[in-house]
């Protein structure tokens, strides 16, 4: 067991699409030098039975993979035997880190077999000067494969029919209009410079005012952009104003998968937690569905958060738990019992929540 632990390159929750029934399930993934193992999390504890494995030899990674509406954080693994696996992370950073670690493992296996190192794209050798920006815009506008328009809330204001900077960068890389994220930022900045895109909200407007050409279009999920007013796009969305829009308008401070105990059945389920500030709210989502509509949440003002001892089962907790427990008591005296994947993540979450209470 100790030997196996030494060879673990990375581990954590990912959401996996099933092969036969195409539903999405949260699984615990363990990256080894030659394979990716996954386990089921049940009853508050990772089961000891390996549910599946993905052999990494000659595996091909596609990141980002944007063919699923409302799931922009998916990446795809295609094995040597042409089996495709679709995995979703909790954030763009997590997605890109998983993809980078898996790619590095695949590369090491290839090198061990006598292969040559994969050549990296030289930014200086970019061919962006040959790209017709109007054709890029036409592709972005395509009803079926173009960029998705959504609503965003920034500092209490709702912006409709727009997209984030990181969403544009993801899309340009996925459509192979740019070979790297750095190149995609340069291309997006050129679209902005030529008036094919416009800034929306304070963050992107400020970036345009203060940054240089290649930096003004940020690979950032909080910098918003849209098409010029003179453009119309089919399938666009309408702005909606509701109470939930206010609590969802805060800046996202932290995202991650945690295991939460239900209030009624006391069962444990993996949830995607999103911590927002100004106003301070903690929302949680069912990762088998999407991160658009939370299944629950509460304001953090007046909350108490504390770490729980992993020795024994604390009062109010049921199930064969893994550990790394903490508890949140809301101002209305509702008790939430939550498990983090690691002790460090537990302490990070507690610190982040305390800053907002």
Describe the protein in words.
The structure is a single chain. With 357 residues, the protein is α+β, with helices and mostly antiparallel strands. It has three domains: 2-112, PH-domain like; 126-226, Arc Repressor Mutant, subunit A (Orthogonal Bundle), CATH 1.10.10; 243-354, PH-domain like (Roll). The protein has eight helices and 18 strands. The chain has helices at 2-6, 92-112, 133-141, 165-174, 181-193, 201-210, 243-247, 343-354; strands spanning 10-17, 24-31, 35-42, 45-55, 60-62, 74-78, 84-88, 150-154, 157-164, 198-200, 224-226, 251-261, 268-277, 281-285, 296-299, 304-307, 325-329, 335-339. The strands form three sheets. Strands 4-3-2-1-7-6-5 form a seven-stranded antiparallel β-sheet, covered by helices on one side. The longest helix is centred in the N-terminal third of the chain and has 21 residues, at 92-112. The relative contact order is 0.10.
Sum up the structure in keywords.
357 residues, alpha+beta, PH-domain like, Arc Repressor Mutant, subunit A, seven-stranded antiparallel beta sheet, 8 helices, 18 strands, globular
Task: Determine and state the CATH class of the largest domain.
Answer: Mainly Beta
Kindly estimate the percentage of residues that lie in beta strands according to DSSP. 25-35%
CATH superfamily of the largest domain: Pleckstrin-homology domain (PH domain)/Phosphotyrosine-binding domain (PTB)
Q: Low-confidence stretches at least 5 residues in length (pLDDT < 50)?
A: 119-126, 234-241
Structural class, by secondary structure, is alpha+beta
Number of helices: 8
Strand order of the largest sheet: 4-3-2-1-7-6-5
Average pLDDT figure: 82
* Assigned CATH architecture of the largest domain: Roll
Radius of gyration: 22 Å
Q: Would you give the CATH topology of the largest domain? A: PH-domain like
